[in-house]
Every structure is written in structure tokens, then in C-alpha cells.
């Protein structure tokens, strides 16, 4: 069953549960936000790629308007809810400035394998250690979900969008595991190369080989 949802296309992927701060400046989206706030309703952020507005997006709840400017611009805090697929897109809703569309809510299936998460955790520790960003591991629970790490994997917007379209947690974790398995050797080799470059020009104390 489909339903109408105001739409705010952006060149980002918002995952369910993610908190997102936005600065709203265009008149059409100022109108959208003010109407959603007045009606205590939600809106959707479909992913905008090079080819245009994608079919998939995330429903967004406004947590609060943090600041309103004299110009009419505003800063808002939001949170991602569920995932939807656009059935019919309207570039401009009749009588409104913003876009909208008929959307179908999609069910997210939590069917992960514990082993997948264990493997990903180990690869993340190695990756973040090599990059010197170990702090990203501090608040990551052992039972993390794919959405918790999706923005911290070096994915492109297109890759994140592909992940958004996967409705099974096991499939999302498999994509993440495959990605980390491929990039980790490259990152480690790059870091070793950086260290070797740093050594060039320095006095070296090297024991001669014994032969």
C-alpha cells in the first residue's frame, strides 16, 4: 500500500536510526519543513544521484528546529526512520513549492549472522588503527548494525545507496565484509609505503648482512 510523502531530494544517503543536522535555506524546503513541523508529520529524503532522483530513500522525522534566521533559513535536527521506494514522483506538489510522491514502505529484515559481525569488527580495528582513527571504535557496540558503520567505511554515495536498497541485514553485512576485505590490504600497503618514504633522506643504522 502506498502513501503520500513530501520529498526533499539530497545527494546523501540517510540510514534508518541516523541523526542528521540540516541547514534549510531554499524557500521550497523551508515551506516543507514548516508544514511538517506544524502538522507533526514526516518527510522523505530520496537519494539524488547524477542520473536524477533515485527510487529509494529514508523517511525523516524532525526532532526540532534549533535556530530560525531573519532570512527565513533554519537549522533543524532530524532522525532517519524507515526506508521507502517511490512509486510516483511529483517534481512539484500542486499548490506547494516542494516535491512529493507516492511511496511504498519497505520492511527491513534483521537476519544477520553473528560471525559476520565478528569478522567485520576485526577488520575495522585494523583499518582504523592503520588510519589513526581508532576513536571510531570506542562507541561501537559488539552488536552493532550495518547502518552504524556505513558512513565510516569509505563508501561512495553510490555504494551507500546500494546498501540502502538491501533489505536484509545479512546482505548488508556481507557487502561491508567484502568491501573491507578488498580495501584493507591496499590501505596497509599505502601506510607501509608512507613509512618507507619518510625514511628516505634520514641517516640509517642498518646492520650489514652476515654472509
Briefly, what is this?
By secondary structure, the chain is an alpha+beta fold.
Describe this structure in words.
Helix 2 (114-131) packs parallel to helix 5. This protein has helices spanning 27-39, 114-131, 146-149, 157-164, 169-199, and strands at 2-7, 19-24, 43-49, 52-68, 74-90, 99-106. The protein folds into two domains: 2-106, Archaeosine Trna-guanine Transglycosylase, Chain: A, domain 4, CATH 2.30.130.40; 114-199, no CATH class. Strands 1, 2, 3, 4, 5 and 6 form a six-stranded antiparallel β-sheet that branches. The protein contains five helices and six strands; from the N terminus they run ββαββββαααα. It has 211 residues and is an alpha+beta fold.
Task: Give the topology, please.
Blueprint: E1 2-7, E2 19-24, H1 27-39, E3 43-49, E4 52-68, E5 74-90, E6 99-106, H2 114-131, H3 146-149, H4 157-164, H5 169-199
Antiparallel strand pairs: 1-6, 2-5, 3-4, 4-5, 5-6
Helix pairs in contact: 2-5
Task: Name the CATH superfamily classification of the largest domain.
Answer: LON domain-like
CATH class of the largest domain: Mainly Beta
Average pLDDT across residues?
Answer: 92
**CATH fold title of the largest domain:** Archaeosine Trna-guanine Transglycosylase, Chain: A, domain 4
Instruction: Please count the beta strands (DSSP E, at least 2 residues each).
Output: 6
Helix content: 25-40%
Instruction: Report how far the terminal alpha carbons are from each other.
Output: 79 Å
Oligomeric form: single chain
Q: Beta fraction of the residues?
A: 25-35%
Q: Uncertain segments of ≥5 residues (pLDDT<50)?
A: none
Architecture per CATH nomenclature, i.e. the level-2 architecture of the largest domain: Roll
Biggest sheet, in brief?
6 strands, antiparallel
Describe the global form: elongated
Query: What's the Cα radius of gyration?
Result: 22 Å
Number of DSSP helical runs? 5
InterPro entries: Lon_prtase_N, Lon_prtase_N_sf, PUA-like_sf
Domain Lon N-terminal: 2-184
Protein name: Peptidase
Amino acid at each position: 500500500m502506498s502513501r503520500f510523502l513530501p520529498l526533499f531530494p539530497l545527494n546523501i544517503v540517510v540510514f534508518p536510526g541516523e541523526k542528521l543536522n540540516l541547514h534549510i535555506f531554499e524557500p521550497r524546503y523551508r515551506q516543507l519543513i514548516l508544514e511538517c513541523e506544524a502538522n507533526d508529520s514526516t518527510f522523505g529524503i530520496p537519494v539524488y544521484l547524477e542520473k536524477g532522483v533515485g527510487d529509494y530513500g529514508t523517511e525523516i522525522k524532525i526532532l526540532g528546529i534549533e535556530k530560525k534566521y531573519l532570512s527565513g533559513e533554519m537549522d533543524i535536527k532530524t532522525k532517519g526512520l524507515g526506508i521507502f521506494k517511490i512509486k510516483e514522483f511529483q517534481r512539484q506538489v500542486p499548490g506547494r513549492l516542494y516535491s512529493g510522491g507516492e511511496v511504498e514502505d519497505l520492511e527491513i529484515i534483521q537476519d544477520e549472522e553473528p560471525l559476520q559481525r565478528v569478522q567485520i569488527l576485526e577488520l575495522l580495528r585494523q583499518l582504523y588503527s592503520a588510519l589513526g582513527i581508532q576513536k571510531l571504535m570506542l562507541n561501537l557496540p559488539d552488536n552493532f548494525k550495518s547502518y552504524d558503520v556505513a558512513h565510516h567505511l569509505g563508501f561512495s554515495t553510490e555504494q551507500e545507496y546500494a546498501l540502502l536498497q538491501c533489505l536484509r541485514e545479512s546482505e548488508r553485512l556481507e557487502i561491508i565484509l567484502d568491501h573491507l576485505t578488498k580495501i584493507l590490504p591496499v590501505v596497509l600497503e599505502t601506510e607501509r609505503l608512507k613509512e618507507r618514504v619518510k625514511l628516505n633522506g634520514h641517516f640509517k643504522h642498518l646492520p650489514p648482512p652476515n654472509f
